[in-house]
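quick one, two chains, predict together pls
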Amino acid sequence: MIEEAVISRTLGAALRTGGDFAEIFVEDKRSSSALLDDGKVEELTSGRDRGAGIRVVVGDTTGFAHTADLTEPGLAAAAEAAAAAARGGGGGTRPIDLTRQSAPSPNVIEIYPGDVPKARKVELLTRADEVARQQGGAISQVSASYGDSRRRILVANSDGLLAADDQVKTFFAVSCVATGDTGMQTGRESVGHTVGFELFDMYDIDELAARAAHRALTKLSARPAPSGQMPVVIGSGGGGVLFHEACGHGLEADLVGKSASVFKGRVGELVASPTVTIVDDGTMAREWGAFSIDDEGHPAQRNVLIENGILTDYMWDLLRARKEGRQSSGNGRRQSYQHLPMVRMTNTYLLGGPDDPDEIVASTDKGVYVKHLGGGQVNTATGDFVFGMTEAYLIENGEITEPLREGNLIGNGPEVLTRIDALAGDFAMGPPGTCGKDGQGVPVGDGVPTLRVSSLTVGGTAA
Amino acid sequence: MSDALLDIGDRVVAMAAPGEQVEAVVSRGRDTEIKAYDGEIESLSSAQSQGVGIRVIADGRQGFAYAATFDDEVLAETLVEARDNAGFATPDEFLGLAEPDGVAVAELHLFSEALESFPTDAKVELAIELERAVRAADPRISGIESAEYVDVMAEGAIVSTTGIRTMGRETACYVMTYAMAADGDEVQTGFGFSVGREPGELDVAHAAAQASDRATRMLGAIKPPSERLRVVLDPWVTAQFLGILAYTLDGEAVLKGRSLFAERLGDEVASPLITLVDDPTDPQAFTATETDGEGLATRRNVLIEGGVLKLFVQNAYSARRSGTVSTGSAVRGGFKSTPGVGCMATSLLPGTATQAELVASVGDGLLVQDVAGLHSGVNPISGDFSTGAEGLRIRGGELAEPVREFTIASTLQKMLKGVTAVGNDLEWLPMSASGVSLVIDEVTISGV
């Protein structure tokens, strides 16, 4: 994207005022999307985002500036702005020798979406609309969206690192509204992977559309969710967000460093049921949160966060790792060249256990079975978290019975980890997610086997 | 400066082919974000961003493309891409750009020269001062999750083949902090902020005290029993509630069968105490703006009056399809998207009682100071409402023990009907709604 010599000179300029570390992150992202709503293909959008972010670190202070002007004078101006922000003691230029480093790609892209005719993408939308509407007369509205992106990044820093990545992602979602005597209900299904147009060889659009429609239809006869504490069974693949919220965020080294995590100072301690092993894995082929290098140029890694209930390590980005004199764990990510990187998850999941999924339900006298969780939120300092149930059922006498209306579940991270009393062997990854932190969104994946939490608070309205 | 943006818009529109409508949205902005930690600058970001979004409507079809540079070659390529995209859309007779409607643009003076000339060092000092003030506010403050100063200067122009040619510029800034308070092993958090058009309007001491109070008053919080209670929503919580309610009053959601209030115009949908206004021409609103996302003048729209549903907000498309006129409510997520419909600055008509008087009148209930998980636990289409919450129990008309890790649940429909009092403590917040204390009956608390 930019000549090596220009990068080297830009880094040199960034350190002119005496910074300890300088980095340039260049991004060239092309994206396209198409939206069908209300029976019409409403619009196709294409966009290109291209620019560079430069940061300079002096002591504990980071200066950052970005520019869409990738000429050498444009980069020099950004470098100067970042350096001025960090305000070092003055140092003079030093040459930066860059060494190109390579990291394995999580998988090979088979069909670049940019090579696929737009008409083919539009066909997928109209097909999803048609199939969803065929599922029942009560389906009153359907929207379907397609999106793809190709994000090429280049990272170089004053330690001599030079690395690049080419990240291709493809996404598809269907949302339905069903209308009945009880009002309206919604159902949504989405798939997204770090793959090209071969996404549609991995998934059947008809099946996806039908599932979204049935989720909405089922809820038309749903009763209000119960309220209060009870056992909650989470279905395979449907609830990885629980661990993303309940412990993932609390294991991010930046929050730990500010004492804003209930997991601070607990490495080596038993923090979960001994059956629990939680992994964050950026190398996971084809998953939504996969990449070959993170946004600081560090190769993706598979990091075991909790092993057999014992907290093994936090997740690290370059800055936090430097401070502790250790290596980054490949978790330094940013939304775009306009943002500073910070510690972020990739694909976070809970490994399977010895139990049988049917047996887990059968041995639950009264509780809730959550087939699908929506988004969530956590306060890492207290560990309190919430997440929404988008498809849930009542468990009565060991059987899944009536569907429930939507509601939130609430709990406390460290408590929930110790309350996992059953784990099945049917691990599956869930739908693609966007994790928000400090105003930045990044793509993440999650996964779980069927499991049971002995007690969680269900936030419904029924007594 | 702004003339340059209009000029770019003119250049795009001049390239329109015969018979096609073309609209260019051109924007440019400069942001500063400073985070303080331990008395030092943790990070200082200064960012300039710019871009152009081009919409083409030809033969009843719409296409869109955007780019982040303004070279003639890029503008031409982006227009071609938008035109090409239009070819794949379904024809829709109601599509069309906004047309000038004669409504005068309010002069709101949303740009502050004082912010433009405010030195970076002084901004840094505000962030550091904020952190210092929070730490000093109470001995139980154990840490700071964040203390930051943020400002934004933005200017934009919209030019179209239908005769729209507007520009505007705005400034805004805020300080915001998340503080932690500790007692033994227990940690609680609280936030505080202050917003303005320029740094001189920021009240750092207020933000610090607010964060400290919110965190320390939660110390010792317990999980409450599950029961039905009358609740008082803090202005901060009410504002978030209004943000969700706004979705149900969006003319596009109504057209597409996604609003629970479709077919309800003229009906009593809320308590008679509820009058909801969307007024982006109120310069006090953080999100005040002179023109909407299609270049029409913004205006004061009364959506619910005395509990009766009066109006849905509309953009040019939703209005044309509903057989009405735009309410100047086209909203855009920057230059990268086509205009949707939405409320921009909603507020409830305030009542006469202070929050303390409302608490006294409730007798037995719960003050909700914060909610979590609104995006996952509230469905504006079905109306199902369930969110995580924390707050203080109200006993004998006074604030009593703090409570946490519970949910409040109801439906949007029931909550609107259940409002028994509106406070006088109207507060503009850094979002598209203002807050005011609100008393609501019969809300389900799920705890132990």
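Chain B touches chain A through 78 residues (CB under 8 Å).
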